[in-house]
Design brief:
Elements lengths: L2 H13 L4 H8 L1 H8 L9 E2 L3 E3 L5 E3 L18 E4 L2 E4 L4 E2 L1 E6 L13 E6 L13 H4 L9 E2 L2 H10 L4 E4 L8 H13 L3 E6 L5 H8 L4 E5 L5 H8 L3 H13 L4 E7 L7 H14 L6 E5 L14 H13 L5 E4 L9 E2 L6 E6 L2 E5 L1 E2 L2 E2 L18 H5 L1 H8 L1
Helix pairs in contact: 1-3, 2-3, 5-6, 10-11
C-alpha cells in the first residue's frame, strides 16, 4: 500500500467520509477514489448518454469540457463512472435534496414571478468552488449521501400534488446528472408544468442543446470575469462558460445571469464593469443580472459576508454599463430586490426578498408608461405578505 493511501485510510477511519474532498486536494484523485470505495449508501448505476468511443476503442465522457476518460474511476463530477469502456451515472433517480421554493430563489425574476416550485438536487458537481454554499452535497458522490429514490414521473406527481406549476434543479450542478434532468422535464412538459435549471454552465454544446429543448428558463452563473479566478477558485475554464452563455442566447433560451460576489476575490469594480459590458454586447442589455451576497462557507469560512455597499457599487456600475435589470440577492428589503421599468423608472414588480408584493405589469408591459418588460410574465403571483407576518389575522377573519 502506498504511503498516501495508508494516510488517507487512517484519517477516514477516524473522521468519516466527508474528508474525501479535502484529501483529494492534498493527495490527489486516486485517494479520493479510495474514499469512494467506502461508499455509505451504494446506489444503482444507470447507463449514461453523453460519451463517445473512438476507432481504437478508447471512450471518454462528452458531457462537459472535463472530458473524463479513466477506466474504473469517477469523473471529476463524482457521479459518473467508466466501467468496461462504458459510462454510467450514479445520480439517476437519486435525490439528495428536495424543497418547495419560490422561483425567485433560483434566482429567476423575469420568469413566472411569485411562483412556487419543487426544486431538487442530486449529489455531485464538475466544478470545485472553494466558497460553495452547498458543498456537503456538491462535493460528494451520490453514494456518499442519503438519497430519496424519485423517478421523473414521481417528481412531476409531487409537483402536481403541491399545486405548483413549475419544477427545477439547483443547489448542486444539474448538468452532471443531465439524463435525469431531461427525463424529468419531458415528463413535466407532458403535464403542462414549466421547468428551470440553475447551473454554473460548464457543459458542452450538444448536451446543452438537448436540455434547452425541454427547459423553459436558465439561471446561469458567471462567477467572475477573470480566467485566473475561475481556475484558482472554481476549478473550471471561464471561456467555456462564456461560450454556453452566448449559445443559450442563440438558442432563444430565457436566460438570467448570476454572480456571487466574494470579498477580495471577485469584487474588483473594474472587472465587474467589464463583465457587465460583455453581457450587454453578447447577451443583450435586457438580460437580468443578479448579484448575490456571499456568506462564509466551505474553504472560505474565514471571510466576512459581502458588504452591502460592495453590492450597491456593483449594481451601479452594471447599470451605468447599460444593463436595464440588475438585482441584489440575499439582501432582503433592499431596493435592488425589485424590478423597475427602464423607461419611466417606476416599480413594476415589487419584492421584499423572495416575496412578490406588488404587480404593475399588464400584458407584459408597464402599467404606467406601456413599456415592454421582457420575460415570461403572463402569470405573476402576489405573496400574501400581511398574512405571513401575522398568521392569526387570516384565522380571525374566518371567525
Amino acid at each position: 500500500m502506498k504511503r498516501r493511501e495508508f494516510i488517507a485510510k487512517s484519517i477516514l477511519a477516524g473522521s468519516g467520509i466527508y474528508l474525501a474532498s479535502i484529501l483529494a486536494d492534498i493527495f490527489g484523485r486516486d485517494v479520493l477514489d479510495i474514499a469512494y470505495a467506502k461508499s455509505k449508501y451504494p446506489s444503482k448505476l444507470t447507463p449514461a448518454r453523453f460519451w463517445i468511443e473512438d476507432s481504437n476503442g478508447n471512450s471518454s465522457c462528452t458531457l462537459c469540457p472535463n472530458g473524463c476518460h479513466t477506466e474504473g474511476e469517477y469523473g471529476i463530477c463524482r457521479s459518473r463512472i467508466k466501467k468496461n469502456g462504458k459510462f454510467f451515472t450514479e445520480a439517476y433517480n437519486q435525490i439528495a435534496a428536495i424543497h418547495d421554493d419560490p422561483i425567485e430563489k433560483a434566482p429567476l425574476y423575469h420568469f413566472m414571478p411569485g411562483s412556487r416550485t419543487v426544486c431538487m438536487a442530486a449529489a455531485g458537481c464538475n466544478a470545485r468552488c472553494k466558497y460553495c454554499q452547498n458543498w456537503q452535497l456538491s462535493q460528494e458522490s451520490p453514494s456518499n449521501v442519503k438519497n430519496d429514490e424519485i423517478t421523473p414521473e414521481k417528481a412531476v406527481q409531487l409537483t402536481k400534488e403541491r399545486g405548483f406549476d413549475c419544477i427545477g434543479f439547483s443547489y448542486t450542478e444539474p448538468m452532471t446528472y443531465m439524463e435525469y434532468v431531461i427525463d424529468t422535464f419531458e415528463a413535466a412538459h407532458a403535464q403542462n408544468i414549466k421547468t428551470y435549471v440553475a447551473s454554473a454552465a460548464y457543459v458542452n454544446r450538444t448536451p446543452f442543446k438537448q436540455l434547452s429543448s425541454v427547459c423553459d428558463a436558465f439561471a446561469l452563473a458567471l462567477k467572475g470575469f477573470d480566467e485566473k479566478f475561475y481556475q484558482d477558485m472554481v476549478g473550471i475554464r471561464m471561456n467555456r462558460v462564456l461560450d454556453i452563455l452566448v449559445y443559450a442566447k442563440e438558442l432563444g433560451c430565457h436566460l438570467e445571469v448570476v454572480n456571487l460576489i466574494v470579498p477580495t476575490y471577485n469584487d474588483d469594480v473594474s472587472k465587474i464593469g467589464e463583465m457587465a459590458k460583455w453581457i450587454v454586447k453578447e447577451l443583450g442589455d435586457d438580460t437580468p443580472l443578479h448579484f448575490l451576497r456571499f456568506y462564509p462557507k466551505f474553504k472560505l469560512s474565514n471571510l466576512p459576508p459581502t458588504p452591502i455597499s460592495t453590492m450597491e457599487v456593483a449594481r451601479k456600475e452594471s447599470i451605468e454599463a447599460g444593463l436595464k435589470y440588475v438585482y441584489l440577492g440575499n439582501a432582503p428589503g433592499h431596493e435592488g430586490n425589485s424590478t423597475y421599468c427602464p423607461s419611466c423608472g417606476k416599480v413594476v414588480i415589487g419584492r421584499i426578498g423572495f416575496r412578490v408584493v406588488q404587480n404593475n405589469i399588464s400584458n407584459g408591459k408597464c402599467k404606467f408608461c406601456g413599456a415592454e418588460i421582457p420575460g415570461i410574465l403572463d402569470k405573476i403571483t402576489l405573496d400574501d405578505f400581511e398574512s405571513r407576518k401575522n398568521p392569526m389575522k387570516k384565522i380571525r377573519k374566518k371567525k
